Amino acid sequence: MKKYTILAITILLNMNLLAQMKIEKNQNDLHQKNENFIKTYRIFPTVNMWYFIKLNTRTGQMWQIKFDQKETKQLDIPLNTLSLIKKEYEVDNRFILYPTKNNSNYLLLDQINGKIWQLNWDTRPEKNRITSLNSFSLIEKQNTIDNRFILYPTKNNWNYLLLDKINGNLWQVHWSTKPEEGELISIK
């Protein structure tokens, strides 16, 4: 009888632990889903644990953020001070930042018109720069409710695929540590 009691208690404890783990997992999933509704500003980590990139998803403006225990060592420095689009075209979640496999480079995508910029990031603010990979819209008419473009990494670290989710058009995005060598090639 004592063995059965111990066995029953053990089973009940294990069931309780599993139920608790499932509740915590669902709460974490819910938090991540709810985070997607907050769209105007996003924070992206860098490989340096003290540095982040803050992105205004409406305008494409970015800031280099450094946090530290000492307030005198904290930074909030603009990477690009000007909006990348006209005021009348601003909409939440328009811009998204993609890290590359090179720790110092990111690709900034305008999800509505397909324009891409390369961010060369450094802990030394004077070394940061942002360069356009394609200075033209990939669509004729912009509909600000359509986040139609998305980047997919390839096995080649220097290339991404850019997909227009509405009409299926595809481009090869080649980026380089020398941004002037980056290019966008239509795939027919």
Brief overview:
The protein is of the alpha+beta class.
Walkthrough of the structure:
With 188 residues, this protein is of the alpha+beta class. The protein is 18% helix and 35% strand. It has one helix at 2-35, and strands spanning 41-45, 51-56, 62-66, 75-80, 95-99, 105-110, 116-120, 129-134, 149-153, 159-164, 170-174, 183-187. Strand 3 and strand 4 (75-80) form a beta hairpin. The longest helix is centred in the first third of the chain and has 34 residues, at 2-35. The protein is extended and about 80 Å long. It starts with a helix and ends with a strand. Mean pLDDT is 83; it is low at 23-33.
What topology does this entry show?
Blueprint: H1 2-35, E1 41-45, E2 51-56, E3 62-66, E4 75-80, E5 95-99, E6 105-110, E7 116-120, E8 129-134, E9 149-153, E10 159-164, E11 170-174, E12 183-187
Antiparallel strand pairs: 1-2, 2-3, 3-4, 5-6, 6-7, 7-8, 9-10, 10-11, 11-12
> How many independent structural domains?
1
Estimate the mean pLDDT confidence: 83
The shape is: extended
The run of helices and strands is HEEEEEEEEEEEE
Going across the biggest sheet, name each strand in turn.
1-2-3-4
CATH architecture type: 7 Propeller
Strand content: 25-35%
Which properties best describe this structure?
alpha+beta, Methylamine Dehydrogenase, Chain H, four-stranded antiparallel beta sheet, 1 helix, 12 strands, 18% helix, extended, signal
